[in-house]
Specification:
With 172 residues, the chain is mostly beta strands. The protein has four helices and nine strands. Helix content is 13%, strand content 37%.
Length: 172
């Protein structure tokens, strides 16, 4: 009998986020996402709830109204500025820019548009205003180790780096 997803189970899965209107895949993970269910809140509560009781090999689809998760779009978070006023490293569409307000609060903005004179950045979550389908493929479900429960995910050993002759003496 295969294990089912429940609190303190280590789960690995892949997912796609699909726009309900267009059917376009908005984002997907290239490598499996691993987490300890009920410990690490990497997924929205609605998605986590839908995963409960599921097993490896299952694929589920969870419809989500992103307005309920991220709130409605806030057009005051969309800023268009002249290119000459923006550092060149931020001139590429898709670049994330971390900005801080006068109260020390930070927010991530994304460069969404660029023309010959201006650049537009948007502080809204890219899924704001969308209805999506979260399609998840469950790859692995097993008991999490105590250490995985403590950190909320898989614990991997670092590489075993052997110091060559003479290196040890140089470090002392």
């Amino acid at each position: 009998m295969s294990e089912t997803i429940d609190t303190n189970k280590y789960v690995e899965l892949t997912y796609e986020v699909i726009d309900q209107k267009s059917g376009q895949v908005l984002t997907s993970v290239e490598f499996p996402l691993g987490y300890v269910h009920g410990v690490n809140a990497v997924l929205s509560p609605q998605v986590s709830e839908e995963l409960e009781g599921r097993s490896a090999g299952e694929t589920i689809e969870v419809p989500l109204d992103c307005n309920r998760i991220f709130g409605p779009r806030d057009e005051s978070l969309v800023i268009t500025e002249y290119l000459r006023n923006v550092p060149e490293e931020y001139h590429e569409v898709g670049t994330a820019i971390l900005m801080e307000n006068d109260r020390g609060e930070t927010r991530s903005f994304l460069v969404t548009r660029k023309d010959s004179k201006t650049i537009t950045i948007d502080g809204n979550n890219p899924l704001c205003g969308r209805e999506v389908i979260f399609k998840l493929e469950i790859l692995l479900v097993r008991d999490a180790t105590d250490e995985e429960i403590e950190v909320g995910g898989k614990v991997e050993e670092g590489p075993d780096i052997a110091l060559g002759p003479g290196i040890h003496e140089m470090m002392n």
